[in-house]
C-alpha cells in the first residue's frame, strides 16, 4: 500500500503534547516488546516498530521512544511517540491503538485541535485520552483508600537496587490494554539489600523472554538487580487455572537483571 506523506501545512497542524522533563526509556528490545504488548499495540510474533498517528486530514508514521507513569500506584502510562521530523508527543496507549484501525479518523471531533495540557501533571485531558481518564480517577481513589487502611507506606528506592527473594508461583494476569492474560512471576520474602534492609514481602514481575531462560521454579531463592515501583498486580489466574493469590501483591519489579540462584 502506498504511503501518502502529509503536506507541510498539515505538519504544522499536528497538536503536539510535548513531554515535560525526563521520561522512562526502554532498557532493551525485550523491555520494548513487553511494554508494547502490554499496551495491546502489537500481537504478532515480530513486535511492531512503527505506528500510525491519524488526524482529520492526514496520517503520519511514528515510533515509540518511551513512556511516562502516573497515578497513585504508577499504574497508568502515557506513551511518548516520535514523528519522522523529530517532534515528540504524548498519547494514551489505548488512543494510539484505536488509531491503527482502518476506520479511525472518519468522524473525528473538532476538540482534537485544542491546546495541549502540560504533561507535568502526569495526565492529559479526556479529549486526548478519550474515555480512560474518568475510570483511572475512580481506580486511583479506591487504591489510595485501600493503601491507608491495609498497609503502612514503604519508602521505595527510586534507583535500581539489589534484591533477594523467593519464587512463589507463576501466574496469568489480565491485561486490559490487549484484553489477554500476561505471564507473571509472583515473588515472596522480597527484601531490598541495602544498609538497612527493606522488607517488601510480596512483589511481581513480568515473565519475560529473558527471565524464562533461567527456568525458574517455585521455592527457588534468587538474587538480582532491579527497580521496584508501587503497582498492584491485576486480578488473574495462576497456571493451574485458579485465582492468582489470596494476598494482594502491591509492588512490581521492573527489568530484573544479573539473576543468581542461591
Detailed description of the structure:
- With 262 residues, this protein is an alpha+beta fold.
- The protein has two domains: 132 residues, no CATH class; 101 residues, OB fold (Dihydrolipoamide Acetyltransferase, E2P) (Beta Barrel), CATH 2.40.50.
- The chain has six helices and ten strands; from the N terminus they run ααββββαααβββαβββ.
Q: Report the structural category.
A: alpha+beta
Q: What's the average pLDDT?
A: 78
Tell me the helix content: 10-25%
Distance between the termini: 54 Å
Q: Give the biggest beta sheet.
A: 6 strands, antiparallel
Number of strands: 10
Q: Give the overall silhouette.
A: elongated
Stretches where pLDDT is under 50 for at least 5 consecutive residues are: 109-115, 117-131
Number of helices: 6
- Give me the Rg, rounded: 20 Å
Proportion of residues in β-strands:
25-35%
Gist of the model:
This protein is an alpha+beta fold and 262 residues long.
Key features of this structure:
alpha+beta; OB fold (Dihydrolipoamide Acetyltransferase, E2P); 10 strands
Please write out the topology.
Blueprint: H1 8-13, H2 29-38, E1 51-54, E2 59-70, E3 76-83, E4 88-91, H3 93-99, H4 126-129, H5 132-150, E5 161-175, E6 180-193, E7 198-206, H6 209-212, E8 221-230, E9 236-238, E10 251-261
Antiparallel strand pairs: 1-2, 2-3, 3-4, 5-6, 5-8, 5-9, 6-7, 8-10
